[in-house]
Amino acid sequence: MPLWLTPAVDVLQLLVNVGALVGGTIIWKLYVNNLKAALTSKDAAISSVEKNRDMWRDKAQELEKRSPEFMERMLSERIQTREGEISRLAEDKGRHEEALKLLERDKANLEADLSRSRGFRLMLALEGEEDEGDVEEGESIDSLLPEVNEIQVVRLGEVGVDSGQLMITDPCYIDDEWQHDLVLDEDAVTEIVGRRQPSQGETANDASGDDQKLPSYSYKGVMEATLSNGYGELAYRLGHPGAGVAFLTAWGDGVYPIYGEMHDGRIIRVYITLG
Predict the structure, then answer these.
(1) What pTM was computed for the model?
(2) DSSP letter at 247?
(3) Which residues constitute the domain of residue 204?
(4) Which of 27, 61, 163, 242 would you label with 192, given CA atoms 20 to 30 Å apart?
């Protein structure tokens, strides 16, 4: 190589090295910018997921507050709080006697509410209304359940009992279907009571005789139904069911309160406290 080319080669080599360094810097900057954009996109996705999570968690908490289990838990906690206050006030009963009576009354009301809540849950379970799997896609549970404040429990009145039995019937049947001339003598009562406990090797249907024939719509029929099973359907004069339903009370004679659930001005359920 001629000597005069040596400086030119060095300059060219220097220019090539500078170009490679500049190109590498540009490529590195583009790579870093790409990483930053990816991180920004991931942060946005994470933020969106967190917002959705918070939204569904709030909805779940709202639905939980409407559930009977939540009401039972709240009532149980309030009862425990009242019991603790009663215990503290009982230590100084002389000064807090009036407050103690108020707290005991409040506790009794809460226990009654808790009992009604558990009974309502049991009734819903028997009717199949708690199965959320029946809700179709796109439907909201809120649209299927009425608001709590739309249902009002009212005391409808009370009924007196002197026979230890009650009957549910349409009053228009009493004049035309009720069989006043049918009575139940002592021998018949003994026979019916004896059928309540079948002998060894005998089924309940065998002990009850003709299980296809319903008791008549009469006082005798009511006694037959309640003495045999504690409850039963009553038949019209033609023998088909539907005239009424009779059942025993838990504590015999007395005066029993009746409550109803009002929804949109209509009674949708009736409760009879029998014990």
Answers:
(1) 0.43
(2) E
(3) 165-248
(4) 242
